[in-house]
Amino acid sequence: MTRQGIIDAALGILAEEGLAKVTMRRIAGVLDTGHASLYVYVRDTEDLHAQILDAMLAAVELTGGGTWRDRVKALLAGYGEVLRRHPELARMALSTRPNGPHFTAIVEQVLALLSEGGADDRSAAWGVDLLLLVPTALAVEHSAEVTPKREEMRISDVEARIKAADPQKYPNITRLGAELVSGDGLVRGLWALDVVLDGILARTATNRAP
């Protein structure tokens, strides 16, 4: 009975049955022990889920080529890919951040890259939360539960609503209708990261202005 053994058992249940089945009692059954004994190693179910996500983040590549901005975007894209494969964990990550070594390494690397890019300490420290929120929110919105066909239907419905909108009442929506539905999830996600990165650098410039 170890913390890692509990996490490994939880990962096995997740792969076969989904996150809803990852309970203390279910894990205890796999490990042939009483569920109360698990609380010596895991604080509660929320802590367990956070540790599961952290274990999965071991697959995220921390280093790569290109500019500091390219590396930030690639790192966060990898983080988002893990979440997209496990939408239940993505929804959990909106309110509960993983706190294990793999997530910590991702945060450390993003902070290092922001510093390399010229961000001041406060802008980097506050900006990392916004940067992590982008792939997390996108993973929830474009989860694995949304099939390509359902996504196409959703976009078609949005397009129909835009076309039906009264241009007198909603002039900007009708004018920008094509742009509102343009770009796929990946393109828009990378654009969002660029916007946040630009904002971090702009705030740094403001902070340093005499």
Helix content: over 70%
Radius of gyration over all CA atoms, rounded:
21 Å
Q: For this structure, what is the CATH homologous superfamily of the largest domain? A: Tetracycline Repressor, domain 2
By CATH reckoning, the class of the largest domain would read: Mainly Alpha
Whole-number average pLDDT?
87
Number of domains: 2
Report the β-strand fraction as a percent range: under 5%
- Count the E strands: 0
Q: How many angstroms separate the termini?
A: 59 Å
The residue ranges in which pLDDT falls below 50 over 5 or more consecutive positions are: none
Describe this structure in words.
Residues 23-42 bind DNA. It comes from Paractinoplanes hotanensis. The N and C termini lie far apart (59 Å). The protein is an all-alpha fold and 210 residues long. It is built from eleven helices and no strands. Helix 1 (3-17) packs across helix 2.
